[in-house]
């Protein structure tokens, strides 16, 4: 537990200053509507097969996913380039680096998994 919860503070101390940006109803609704749109369009693309090519559909869906991540970061997590959020942004960059390394390593292992497997034997020839 934090000692801040039980500590006596000087008069005028506020843990959340009023000049700090907070989310508004309009901002949350904008983020919600954008999130619904950015979810419905890829769903429609996949279910209808509108693009015709599975690989192209996959890339378009991933593009929508990246845009939706950015929408969530801006409207719900309130991440921006201000100095106050510097540590949050630094933590995000570190997290992205770790996720990219993990995904790249996993894809690399899965891609080369077939060459490292034992050859297939016919089970009918076994005694």
Q: Could you explain how this protein is built, in words?
A:
This protein has 127 residues and is an all-alpha fold. It is 57% helix and 0% strand. The model has no long low-confidence stretch (mean pLDDT 82).
List keywords for this structure.
flat; 127 residues; mainly alpha
Summarize the structure.
By secondary structure, the protein is an all-alpha fold.
What is the straight-line distance between the termini? 66 Å
Please work out how many helical segments DSSP would assign.
Answer: 3
Arithmetic mean pLDDT: 82
Range of helix content: 55-70%
In terms of per-residue confidence, which ranges show pLDDT below 50 for 5 or more consecutive residues?
Answer: none
- The class by helix and strand makeup works out as mainly alpha
Fold blueprint:
Layout: H1 25-48, H2 54-75, H3 86-112
């Amino acid at each position: 537990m934090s000692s801040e919860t039980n500590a006596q503070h000087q008069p005028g101390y506020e843990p959340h200053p009023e000049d700090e940006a907070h989310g508004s109803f309009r901002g949350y609704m904008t983020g919600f509507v954008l999130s619904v749109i950015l979810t419905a369009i890829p769903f429609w693309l996949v279910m209808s097969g509108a693009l015709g090519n599975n690989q192209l559909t996959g890339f378009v869906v991933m593009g929508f996913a990246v845009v939706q991540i950015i929408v969530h970061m801006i409207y719900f997590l309130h991440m921006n380039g201000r100095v106050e959020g510097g540590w949050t942004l630094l933590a995000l960059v570190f997290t992205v680096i770790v996720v990219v390394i993990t995904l790249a390593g996993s894809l690399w292992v899965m891609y080369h998994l077939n060459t490292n497997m034992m050859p297939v034997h016919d089970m009918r020839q076994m005694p």
